[in-house]
Amino acid sequence: MTKGRVIEAHRTNFTVAFDNRELLATVRGNFHVAKDFPKVGDYVSLELLEDDKAVIEEVLERKTVIKRKAADADEEQIIATNVDYIFIVMGLDGDYSLSRLERYLLLAQQSAIDTIVVLNKIDLANDLNSLLREAAGVVGDTPVIAVSATTGSNMGEFLNYVKSGSTAVLLGSSGAGKSTITNWLLEETKQEVNETRLDDSRGRHTTTSRQLFTLPNGGYLIDTPGMRELGVLDTDAEDELAVFEKIEQFSLECKFNDCDHEKSVGCAVLAAVESGAVTERELANYHKLLRERAFLESKDSTAAARHHNQNQKRQSQKYAAIQRQKLSRGKY
Ligand SMILES: Nc1nc2c(ncn2[C@@H]2O[C@H](COP(=O)(O)OP(=O)(O)O)[C@@H](O)[C@H]2O)c(=O)[nH]1
Ligand SMILES: [Mg+2]
Ligand SMILES: [Zn+2]
């Protein structure tokens, strides 16, 4: 079998590493049928074509998968596969946020992959020790390394993890320094770096797609764009969902099936608020979410209706045009 590894994925076009070459690859029809395409990190079987081109026949069994649920649907999005280490990168500048760190840790935990927290830009930190103490409060047993990708300070720590044959991925928001770290590990400037750090976090995002690199020491590294612009880490929705599910769980015990969880007798949700298992705020959020859902659903149906009308209109315009053609032909 000819085995390669997906290093870049763009819808239906892929770059695959094979035999120290990079091949442009498409996929067999069965992928299109299943609407399930290879992901960055996948090992695949290949049919080699001329001119460094190939067709991906099959995705080989994935050792690990990093994924998250899309905010709206039950659809899951795969971030990378066959990863041995997750580095959660956070800059010790405006990027620093313990609650975001917690969310990334949750994502990593769900994938059951060894995780390392990277606090980058120590050259900018005024009081590194207190920042480290704060971080220690949320990371638990997860190792933390504090580095500076631009000065090179402590960067050798990465080499304890990125070894020949192992694959690491850099996660974290845009501007945290992932591409700068990638370049350091590559020992060359392959990834473009944000030159100016804009305060409004809407700065230029130079890394636009996930990409797997082979490091000089034989390890693999996947650089990713910040997840916000990828639309994958809508964590507020995730938090809300957890609360939602918790409350729905209690509601199974309500006396009446159509309980409004507001003032009904025998309401298990209100009892949970009484007992402290659910906070007032969580319940208020839950009601808000329900109202939003109802609103979105009604909007969806008007959008669908509009779409239907437009189709009808287009159909009748087409019909009228055909009629006109027929008429004009009829004249001759
Ligand atoms: N002062 C300082 N700046 C850094 C460090 N690492 C990265 N940067 C800067 O932070 C900005 C964003 O870096 P980049 O690697 O593009 O972040 P990415 O979006 O996570 O890939 C760039 O201007 C980098 O030069 C660091 O350790 N110290
Ligand atoms: Mg980048
Ligand atoms: Zn109830």
Give the strand tally. 13
Distinct small molecules bound, one entry per kind:
guanosine-5'-diphosphate, magnesium ion, zinc ion
Shape verdict: flat
C-alpha end-to-end distance: 66 Å
In the CATH hierarchy, what is the architecture of the largest domain at level 2? 3-Layer(aba) Sandwich
Question: Which ranges are low-confidence, i.e. pLDDT below 50, for 5 or more consecutive residues?
Answer: 196-205, 228-237
CATH structural fold name of the largest domain: Rossmann fold
What radius of gyration results from the CA coordinates?
Answer: 26 Å
CATH secondary-structure class of the largest domain: Alpha Beta
Question: Approximately what portion of the residues adopt beta-strand conformation?
Answer: 15-25%
Q: Kindly report the name of the CATH homologous superfamily of the largest domain.
A: P-loop containing nucleotide triphosphate hydrolases
Strands of the widest sheet, in order across it, are: 10-9-8-11-13-12
Number of domains: 3
Give me the secondary-structure category.
alpha/beta
Number of helices: 8
Bin the helical content: 25-40%
The ordered string of helix (H) and strand (E) elements is EEEHEEEEEHEHEEHEEHHHH
Give the integer mean of the pLDDT values: 81
The largest β sheet comes out as: 6 strands, mixed
